């Protein structure tokens, strides 16, 4: 086996960067310790020419894989013509039309941004503008970004140390069935977590609920898939409370879950949809999609009120247009569904073999595992062991988000069954070596 991981060139670049780069970049980069120099399809190459299968895709960003010829040529040809500005352009027009054609009819008003947090914040401002109310409910385990307006809506201790946070925000339980906070089982539970959410909203809010903000599958929490009747129940609750439903599809959108959008797996229709990550295939472009009526809400609709400096500029539009066209033409949504099912089946077989895999779940190419010391207590596998697993994968040529006990697998949507199988062979070999020590 060829040993991968930090070679001399990687070590030199990482060491020198370390003199200038502020701490706090993604853990996956720090722990891998490699410098990347190129990418092609599902394979990344480091500065020493060592290759890695990519099961991270820049955390769900590289939907077309790396250096897709159509995407690179769209960007370079647009860059040589016009990159900047919010004036109308043929490219943005084509993108807007295409987006409208793949979304349910009412969601036909689109505003474009460059960051995910920025788009979610714009969605919250829109909800407040439309309803005239100011409170927002989000979920335990949820993640919507790190900026001031969304930080209080992060449903884990990540936000500690940055208080005080914006008031008017509330968190309720997500349908994380493997770790059900009510210790119940679906479907016998009758979605008791939604009843608790209702009670929490009743007890904690000030009667001014503008919106419920939800990930249809929680990405950062560990690719946690709620049962199919949960999102419709949340939508029903939003309607009862006269609040808007904002579905954050930053990770789940554009085919990742085997449908163009994850809300389409259930019978729900968001009032506002936020998109990003895989939408631009690696170019930073995000968006808010909503109805005609909502988009008209004052002050969101005033000139310069919902826009941003680089959102949807011609270069961003060209990247997103090429990405979405490619997704459609190469049927990458279907591929995500098909390869995702094979991967899920293989992970389930691994679960039978290794007692430390407590849970396996997923939809399309958004797959997750809970790693435990004991299946009864569900005690998470210690971080030190997870980091050994992560580094073991890197050394054998596989990049996947396995540095914490909730493993996330989200390869590019172009991945073939053979590549998926090869990556899972590596993961299984790392588990097999670890098994006798656990
Ligand atoms: C569901 C969701 N929303 C919003 C964000 C924030 O995106 P960004 O990091 O581009 O600000 C993320 C980032 O991971 C996310 O997963």
Describe what you observe in this structure:
The chain is 36% helix and 15% strand. The protein is α/β, with parallel strands linked by helices and 438 residues long. The chain has a 7-stranded mixed β-sheet with strand order 4-10-9-8-7-5-6, sandwiched between helices. A 4-stranded mixed β-sheet has the order 1-2-3-13. The mean pLDDT is 97.
Secondary structure layout:
Layout: H1 8-17, H2 27-32, E1 36-40, E2 43-46, E3 51-54, H3 57-60, H4 69-79, H5 90-102, E4 109-113, H6 116-131, E5 135-139, E6 169-172, H7 192-204, E7 209-214, H8 230-240, E8 244-248, E9 272-275, E10 286-290, H9 292-295, H10 314-329, H11 332-353, E11 357-363, E12 366-371, H12 383-396, E13 398-399, E14 406-409, H13 417-434
Parallel strand pairs: 3-13, 5-6, 5-7, 7-8, 8-9
Antiparallel strand pairs: 1-2, 2-3, 4-10, 9-10, 11-12, 12-14
Helix pairs in contact: 4-10, 5-10, 11-13, 12-13
């Amino acid at each position: 086996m060829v040993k991968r991981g930090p070679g001399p060139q990687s070590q030199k670049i990482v060491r020198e960067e370390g003199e200038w780069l502020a701490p706090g970049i993604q853990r996956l980069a720090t722990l891998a310790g490699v410098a990347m120099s190129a990418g092609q399809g599902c394979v990344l190459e480091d500065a020493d020419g060592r290759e890695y299968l990519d099961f991270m895709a820049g955390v769900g960003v590289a939907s077309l894989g790396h250096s897709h010829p159509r995407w690179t040529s769209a960007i370079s040809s647009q860059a040589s013509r016009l990159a900047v500005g919010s004036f109308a352009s043929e490219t943005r027009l084509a993108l807007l039309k295409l987006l409208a054609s793949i979304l349910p009819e009412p969601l036909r008003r689109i505003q474009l941004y460059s960051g995910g947090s920025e788009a979610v914040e714009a969605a919250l401002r829109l909800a407040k503008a439309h309803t005239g109310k100011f409170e927002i409910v989000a979920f335990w385990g949820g993640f919507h970004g790190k900026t001031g307006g969304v930080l209080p809506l992060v449903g884990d201790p990540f936000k500690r140390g940055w208080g005080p946070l914006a008031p008017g925000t509330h968190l309720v339980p997500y349908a994380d069935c493997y770790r059900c906070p009510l210790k119940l089982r679906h479907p016998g539970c009758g979605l008791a977590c939604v009843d608790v959410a209702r009670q929490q909203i009743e007890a904690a809010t000030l009667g001014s609920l503008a919106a419920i903000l939800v990930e249809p599958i929680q990405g950062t929490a560990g690719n946690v898939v709620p049962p199919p009747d949960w999102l419709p129940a949340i939508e029903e609750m939003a309607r009862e409370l006269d609040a808007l439903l904002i579905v954050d599809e930053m990770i789940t959108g554009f085919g990742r879950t085997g449908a163009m959008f994850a809300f389409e797996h259930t019978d729900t229709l968001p009032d506002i949809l936020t998109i990003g990550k895989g939408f631009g295939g690696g170019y930073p472009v995000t968006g808010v999609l909503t109805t005609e009526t909502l988009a008209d809400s004052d002050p969101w609709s005033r000139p310069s009120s919902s826009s941003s400096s680089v959102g949807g500029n011609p270069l961003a539009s060209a990247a997103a247009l090429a990405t979405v066209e490619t997704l459609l033409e190469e049927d990458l949504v279907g591929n995500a569904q098909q390869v995702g099912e094979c991967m899920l089946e293989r992970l389930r077989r691994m679960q039978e073999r290794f007692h430390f895999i407590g849970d396996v779940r997923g939809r399309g190419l958004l797959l997750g595992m809970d790693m435990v010391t004991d299946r009864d207590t569900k005690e998470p596998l210690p971080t030190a062991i997870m980091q050994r697993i992560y580094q073991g994968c890197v050394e054998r040529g596989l990049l996947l988000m396995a540095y914490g006990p909730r493993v996330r697998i989200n390869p590019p949507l172009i991945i073939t069954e053979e590549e998926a199988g090869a990556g899972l062979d590596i993961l299984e070999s790392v588990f097999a070596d670890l098994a006798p020590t656990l």
